[in-house]
Amino acid sequence: MLEVRDIVRKNCSSAEVYEEGVKAFSPATYVSRIKAEELYFRIGTHDLLIPSSEGRALMGALRNKVFKTDIKCYLGASHGTSIYLASRDLREKNKV
User: Which of residues 54 and 44 earns the better pLDDT score?
Assistant: First the structure.
């Protein structure tokens, strides 16, 4: 199965065209379709799976929505560390 980057790379003539193509697949593009009253969102700045630039773009787009958001960025955290810290924060928030 081809990944998004492979599809875009296959159809691009330059790095600039590639970057523009990847932006079309960004989750920030779809924020307007979210139907939620509250959203819990966590990212890590050293996430190798999801680039922090994408996470920050999504974070900015989510902050502009009218629903309640609980957003946090963990400095220096990887993907796995972010998941651990997010679960810890959620347990503390819900007093579990």
Answer: 44
